[in-house]
C-alpha cells in the first residue's frame, strides 16, 4: 500500500544573521524503510525532533526527499508528488490555511477542492460535523475557536471527500477526552467501513496503544523499532512498573528507600521504577511494611505499556531531561 525505501532528507545548515547563531545541517530522515499495509492504523512514535513530521510530509508529497523512494497505492510520489492530493487526507500540525473560514465552510471547501459536487460536499460536511459533535459551532470561524475545537474542525475537514489514506499529525493535540474519543471513533469507523489506511503521528503513547495495529518508533531520523504494540511490549519482557508517590520528600534516611533510589526515575514527588516481578513485590513490601509507609501517599503496580517500551528503547520521558536508561 505504502512502501518507503532508503528515504533521506537533510535540512541544510543556515548561517546566523544579526549576531544570532547559525544552525547545523539536520539529517531529519536518515535512511528510512517502511511498509504500511492497506487498512492498517499505523503509528509513528518518537520524541520531539525525531523526524516524524518530516517523514509524513514526504509521504504526502509536500516535501521532496534527497534520496529514496515513496510508493503510495502504486504511485511514485517522488516523481509525481502532486498525485498525493488525490490519495491522502492530510491533517498537518498547523491549520493556518483554513483559519479564516467557518467550521462548515472549511469542511465544504475541502470537499469542493477534492472534486465533490456542491451537493455532495454539503452532504458530507453535514454528516461529518454531526459525527464529530461540531454542528453547534459550525458557523464560527476557526480562528475564533479554542485550540482543541480548531483541531477537531481541521480533522473534520480532512475526512471530507473520503480519501483512501489518512495521514494525521498529532490529531488529538490539545483536545479534551470527549473530542479525542470522537476522533478515534471516526478513524475506526473509516477503517471498518471503507478500509481506509491511517498513518498517525503521536506522542500520546498510552492513548495510541488502544487504536494502533503497528507502530514504528523513530529516533534521530531512524526507525529503531517497528512491530505491533504487543510485539513491542515483549521487548520489555515481564517488567513491572512501580510508581511510588511520596507525601513530600522521599524518606532517603530509610535504607529500603535509599536502596531503590538509583533504579528510580524521579519527577517531583513521583518515583517510577521498572523491575522484575519478584523485585517489584519486594520493593512494595519494603515501602509499605516499614517506616517508609508514613511518607508514602500512593503506589501502583502496572504491567508494561507502550510507553515503557518507548522509554526502554531510549525515548525521552515527557518533560524529563535527557535519555532514560534502557
Ligand atoms: N524547515 C526546517 N528547517 C531546518 N530544520 C528543520 C526544519 N523542519 C524540521 N527541522 C529539524 O529536523 C528535525 C526533525 O523535525 P520534525 O519536525 O520532523 O520532528 P518531529 O518528530 O515531527 O518533532 P515534533 O514531535 O516536535 O513535532 C528536527 O531536528 C528539526 O529541528
UniProtKB/TrEMBL annotation:
Highest taxon listed in the record's lineage: Bacteria
Chief location: membrane
Span of domain ABC transporter: 8-245
InterPro entries reported for this sequence: AAA+_ATPase, ABC_transporter-like_ATP-bd, ABC_transporter-like_CS, ABC_transporter_ATP-binding, P-loop_NTPase
GO MF, one example: ATP hydrolysis activity
Pfam families: ABC_tran
Gene3D superfamilies xrefs: P-loop containing nucleotide triphosphate hydrolases
GO CC, alphabetical: plasma membrane
Name of the featured protein: ABC transporter ATP-binding protein
Amino acid at each position: 500500500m505504502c512502501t518507503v525505501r532508503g528515504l533521506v532528507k537533510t535540512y541544510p545548515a543556515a548561517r546566523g544573521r544579526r549576531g544570532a547563531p547559525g544552525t547545523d545541517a539536520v539529517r531529519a530522515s536518515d535512511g528510512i524503510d517502511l511498509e504500511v499495509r492497506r487498512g492498517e492504523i499505523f503509528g509513528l512514535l518518537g520524541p520531539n525532533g525525531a523526524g516524524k513530521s518530516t517523514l509524513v510530509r514526504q509521504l504526502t508529497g509536500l516535501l521532496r526527499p534527497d534520496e529514496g523512494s515513496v510508493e503510495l497505492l502504486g504511485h511514485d510520489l517522488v516523481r509525481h508528488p502532486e498525485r498525493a492530493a488525490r490519495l491522502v487526507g492530510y491533517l498537518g500540525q498547523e491549520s493556518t490555511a483554513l483559519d479564516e473560514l467557518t467550521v462548515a465552510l472549511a469542511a465544504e471547501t475541502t470537499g469542493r477542492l477534492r472534486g465533490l459536487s456542491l451537493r455532495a460536499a454539503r452532504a458530507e460536511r453535514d454528516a461529518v460535523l454531526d459525527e464529530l459533535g461540531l454542528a453547534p459551532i459550525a458557523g464560527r470561524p476557526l480562528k475564533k475557536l479554542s485550540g482543541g475545537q480548531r483541531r477537531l474542525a481541521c480533522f473534520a475537514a480532512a475526512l471530507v471527500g473520503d480519501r483512501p489514506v489518512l495521514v494525521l499529525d498529532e490529531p488529538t493535540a490539545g483536545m479534551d477526552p470527549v473530542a479525542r474519543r470522537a476522533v478515534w471513533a471516526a478513524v475506526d469507523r473509516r477503517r471498518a467501513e471503507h478500509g481506509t489506511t491511517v498513518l498517525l503521528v503521536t506522542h500520546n503513547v498510552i492513548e495510541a496503544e488502544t487504536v494502533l495495529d503497528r507502530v514504528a518508533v523513530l529516533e534521530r531520523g531512524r526507525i529503531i523499532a517497528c512491530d505491533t504494540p504487543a510485539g513491542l511490549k515483549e521487548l520489555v519482557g515481564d517488567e513491572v512498573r512501580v510508581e511510588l508517590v511520596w507525601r513530600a520528600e522521599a524518606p532517603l534516611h530509610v535504607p529500603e528507600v535509599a536502596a531503590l533510589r538509583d533504579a528510580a526515575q524521579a519527577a517531583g514527588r513521583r518515583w517510577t521504577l521498572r523491575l522484575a516481578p519478584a523485585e517489584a513485590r519486594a520493593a512494595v513490601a519494603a515501602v509499605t511494611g516499614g517506616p517508609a509507609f508514613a511518607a508514602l501517599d500512593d503506589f501502583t503496580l502496572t504491567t508494561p505499556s507502550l510507553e515503557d517500551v518507548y522509554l526502554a528503547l531510549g525515548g525521552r520521558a515527557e518533560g524529563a531531561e535527557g535519555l532514560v536508561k534502557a
